[in-house]
């Protein structure tokens, strides 16, 4: 029997990002993927938003993606472009890059970190007990893990096996996506009519990329070439002689979210935890950020430096983020309905988004730069992303994000604290402590300028867990909450790998 500390089911962007996060913490992790290989047929998702690029930058990976794609202003709401070029971030843009390239880069990174990626492994179910989880494969084999994370998509078998409810709303519209050959030249570009939006484009492989809205909501199965032809005829009066599809799928506005992201030793991330219409292009991005929130927490629990209830903060923080995504994708679907009254509402929304404050608010939301975890009252930075500031240290100039490459917490001290008896040395092996100077304005997207703190505790996911304003009040509590108890810190063997069950 194969045994690992963590088994991730699904080698999409979420699963691969999570595998890398766990490997950075030297956790014994393996990935099981049903597909025979990493190659992904079809283009699927088409890019990264600004916060996801920042998350990759925090791990020193951003350049790998930026070198393969095209930067552009990609944020928008209900068809209204939202420019973030004036936002306080090193990446005031999105990245146009197809999902197959995103997955390949993440798979290469996981391989560099020694993560075994097992393709052609079809997981049929999981059964957990007090000590771990049995993972059953379609060929009769059984794997064992201390924790299993389902990153296996909207039809997640892991979610179903764990008995986690998937609540929400059924589809009201559906569209077909395909990459195929055509005998006739199609009408290139985007076309909109009473049914919805339709489009033709050239793919990287030279085929015709097709998107066509169906007259009626399609059945919950993979579509056929005949259905594609019928949908094209209904819109264009011809099917353009479409044939030889290499990829054909159906997407809908089905909107559902897992009632819980954790059931014992089984956790969910990405589409296994939330599905919605593609409006706004937030699905892949939300999943990758799920992985970055979960990875360090699961690693600390496995290393026994943090109690198991740290995992409960994963649901508490990420569930509201996805719930907001679901709410706004439903709103955007409603605004694109072919109805004169809805069109009037859409025009009003567009007018509002042309104003400065709504533009900044919605652009920050759609780009992921405004995510705020509720860590209680306090400084505006608390629970928000740490800005990537330029620092001056004893070792020379340094960016904040460079301090996060190893996915360790960082205590950044920007002034001498008042002597109040808080001793941070018990966490020295776990928390990187940096003395630095910083000049310039501290600014957050949508909020604007905020008071400059004298110290901050930054979690491995780049969110601020504590803010010092001249004293260390609350620091010991924050360190204990997010980095484990002082006793655990003293007894921890630095760098010890987490074995399997």
Automatic annotation (TrEMBL):
Cofactor field: FAD
InterPro entries: FAD-bd, FAD/NAD-bd_sf, RIFMO-like
MF-aspect GO terms: FAD binding; oxidoreductase activity, acting on paired donors, with incorporation or reduction of molecular oxygen, NAD(P)H as one donor, and incorporation of one atom of oxygen
Keyword Flavoprotein in record: yes
Pfam families referenced in this protein's UniProt entry, alphabetically: FAD_binding_3, Rng_hyd_C
Boundaries of every FAD-binding domain copy: 5-328
Entry keyword set: FAD, Flavoprotein
Keyword Flavoprotein found: yes
UniProt protein name: FAD-binding domain-containing protein
Species: Kocuria sediminis
């Amino acid at each position: 029997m194969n045994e690992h500390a963590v088994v991730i089911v699904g080698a999409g962007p979420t699963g691969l990002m999570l595998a890398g996060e766990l490997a950075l913490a030297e956790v014994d992790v393996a990935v099981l993927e049903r597909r025979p290989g990493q190659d992904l047929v079809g283009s699927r998702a088409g890019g990264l938003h600004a916060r996801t690029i920042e998350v990759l930058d925090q791990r020193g990976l951003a350049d790998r993606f930026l070198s393969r794609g095209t930067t552009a202003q990609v944020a928008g709401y209900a068809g209204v472009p939202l420019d973030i070029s004036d936002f306080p971030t090193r990446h005031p843009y999105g990245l146009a890059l197809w999902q197959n390239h995103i997955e390949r880069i993440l798979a290469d990174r996981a391989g560099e970190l020694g993560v075994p990626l097992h393709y052609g492994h079809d997981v049929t179910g999981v059964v957990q007990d007090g000590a771990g989880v049995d993972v059953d494969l379609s060929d009769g084999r059984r794997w064992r893990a201390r924790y299993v994370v389902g990153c296996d998509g909207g039809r997640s078998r892991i979610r179903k096996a764990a008995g986690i409810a998937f609540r929400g709303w059924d589809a009201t519209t559906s569209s077909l996506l395909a990459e195929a050959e055509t005998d006739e030249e199609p009408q290139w570009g985007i076309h909109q009519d009473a049914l919805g939006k339709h489009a033709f484009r050239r793919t990287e492989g030279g085929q015709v990329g097709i998107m066509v809205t169906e007259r009626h909501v399609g059945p919950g199965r993979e579509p056929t070439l005949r259905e594609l032809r019928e949908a094209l005829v209904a819109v264009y009066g011809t099917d353009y002689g479409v044939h030889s599809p290499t990829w054909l799928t159906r997407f809908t506005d089905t909107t559902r979210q897992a009632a819980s992201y954790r059931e014992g030793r089984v956790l969910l991330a990405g589409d296994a935890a939330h599905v919605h219409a593609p409006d706004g292009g937030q699905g892949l991005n939300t999943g990758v950020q799920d992985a970055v929130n979960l990875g360090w927490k699961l690693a600390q629990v496995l290393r026994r430096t943090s109690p198991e209830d740290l995992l409960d903060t994963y649901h508490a923080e990420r569930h509201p983020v996805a719930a907001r995504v679901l709410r706004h994708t439903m709103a955007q679907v409603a605004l694109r309905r072919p109805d004169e009254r809805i069109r009037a509402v859409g025009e009003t929304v567009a007018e509002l988004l042309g104003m400065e404050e709504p533009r900044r608010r919605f652009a920050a939301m759609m780009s992921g730069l405004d995510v705020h975890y509720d860590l209680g009252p306090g400084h505006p930075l608390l629970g928000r992303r740490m800005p990537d500031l330029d620092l001056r240290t004893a070792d020379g100039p340094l960016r904040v994000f460079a301090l996060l490459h190893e996915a360790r917490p960082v205590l950044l001290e920007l002034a001498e604290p008042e002597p109040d008896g808080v001793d941070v040395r018990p966490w020295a092996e776990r928390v990187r402590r940096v003395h630095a100077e910083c000049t310039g304005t501290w600014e957050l997207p949508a909020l604007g300028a905020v008071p400059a703190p004298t110290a901050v505790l930054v979690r491995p996911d780049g969110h601020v867990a504590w803010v010092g304003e001249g004293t260390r009040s609350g620091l010991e509590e924050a360190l204990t909450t997010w980095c484990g108890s002082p006793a655990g810190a003293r007894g921890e063997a630095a760098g010890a790998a987490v074995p399997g069950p």
